[in-house]
Amino acid sequence: MDALGVRIAGEDVALFADRALFWPRESALLIADLHLGKADTFRAAGIALPSGGTRHDLDRLTALIERTNAHRLIVLGDMLHASAKTKRWRETWDAWRAVHASLRIDVIAGNHDRALAAAGLDIAHHAHTLAIAPFVLRHAPDQTEGAHVICGHVHPVVRLPHIAGRWPAFVLGSAQTVLPSFSAFTGGGEIDPSGLRVAVCNGREIALFGS
Q1: Nearest residue to 103 (alpha-carbon basis) of 11, 29, 207
Q2: Which bin fits 117, alpha (ψ -120 to 50), beta or left (φ > 0)?
Q3: Strand duo 124-126 + 148-151: pairing
C-alpha cells in the first residue's frame, strides 16, 4: 500500500509513501523540506555528491501531482538549499515550473530560505505561517491555540523492530502533524516512536503504527 487515508482535525487527508500529504478539500499537496539545489551546494564546497538530485525530487513531485490532480502545492519550508543564482538547479526548476504553470505554489519560508523572497520562482511567499482552517501551516513545530499545526523541519525518521535501517515518518499528534523531509537527499532526525502515532514510509509502502 503506497497511500494511507487518515483523519486530521476532522479533515480527511491522504499520506503517501513518497513523503507527501494530500488534502482533497483544498486540492492541495503538502510537502516539507524540498531543499532544491542541495547537491549543488555540497559539490561547490568540495563534497562529492551525484548530480540530478533536484530533477529526481521534481520528477517525484510531478508523479504525485498527476496522481492526485492537485491544483495547489504547499511547501512547508526549506524549499531552497542553494544560492538562487546557482545555474544547474535553477534551470531544472524553471523548466519544471513552466510545465506546471497553472499550479498554485505557496511556500512558507524555512531556515534555509533566506534567498527565497527575491528568487523569482513564481511562488506565493509566506514569511512565517499560512492559516487555512482548521490548520496552521508552518515550517518548524510549534503550538497554535485553537488550530492543528502541520509542519516539517525536523525530518523525522524512526527505527522499527526487526527491520534494518531508519525510515521516514509522519508524526500524527492530536494538535500537530510533522511531515518527513520530501527531498531524497536529506538526512533524518531520529525520534522514539513509543507512545506516538506514526506513519512510516519507504517510497513504495506506508504503514501506520501506534494508537
Answers
A1: 29
A2: alpha
A3: unpaired
Residue-wise burial string across 98-115, b where 16 or more C-beta atoms lie within 10 A, e elsewhere = eebeebebbbbbbebbee
| Gap between the Cα atoms of 111 and 88, Å rounded | 22
| pTM to 2 decimal places | 0.91
Amino acid in the structure at residue 105: I
CA dist 179 and 167 (Å) reads: 13
Q: What pLDDT score was predicted for residue 5? A: 97
pLDDT in tens, 11-63: 999 999 999 999 999 999 999 999 887 545 444 434 444 455 789 999 999 99
CA–chain centroid gap for 50, Å, is 21
| Domain limits, the chain | 3-209
The three cell numbers locating residue 170: 509522519
CATH top class, domain 3-209? alpha beta
Length of the chain in terms of residues written: 211
